[in-house]
Write a structure and sequence with these properties.
Elements lengths: L2 H13 L1 E5 L5 E2 L17 E5 L3 E10 L12 E8 L4 E6 L12 E6 L15 E5 L3
Antiparallel strand pairs: 1-2, 1-3, 4-5, 4-7, 5-6, 7-8
The structure holds zinc ion (ZN).
Zinc ion binds next to loops.
């Protein structure tokens, strides 16, 4: 991901803001200025909304190798989370052992301090996901 794209998407990464298309009601995350389905019809009809922050793990991978400054974090889990609103969000799963992560597990987003701001363009997430204890 380019640095420019990272900064453009950063506000939504920070607070899980999405937009809902007023024409087809589709929820778009990260937010866009135009609905990819309705295109021109959607201009001016996209409403900002905040995702509730809960969902379930759709898929995940365990990362064993990481850039050296992330050494103390590894192995760590990156998952695609299917939010209750239907959109999929990629984020790190924390507060549990990688071996405990399962597809379908309920998680909720939590805001965590961003990682170090290296010059290498490392991806930072404002939110991470923790298991919902049932
Ligand atoms: Zn639409």
């Amino acid at each position: 991901m380019s640095t420019a794209r990272f900064w453009r998407e950063n506000p939504s990464r920070y607070n899980l803001t999405a937009v809902r298309c007023g024409v087809c009601k589709r929820i778009l995350f990260p937010p866009r200025s135009i609905c990819p389905i309705c295109r021109r019809k959607s201009v001016g009809k996209l409403e900002e909304m905040k995702l509730r922050g809960e969902g379930e793990i759709y898929s995940f991978s365990i990362v064993y190798e990481a850039p050296s400054h992330l050494d103390k974090m590894k192995p760590y889990v990156i998952a695609i989370v299917q939010m209750d609103e239907g959109v999929r969000v990629t984020g790190q799963i924390i507060d549990c052992e990688p071996s405990d992560v399962k597809i379908g597990m309920r998680v909720r987003s939590t805001l965590r301090k961003l990682g170090e701001d290296g010059e290498s363009g490392i991806i930072h997430y404002g939110y991470k996901f923790i298991p919902v204890k049932s």
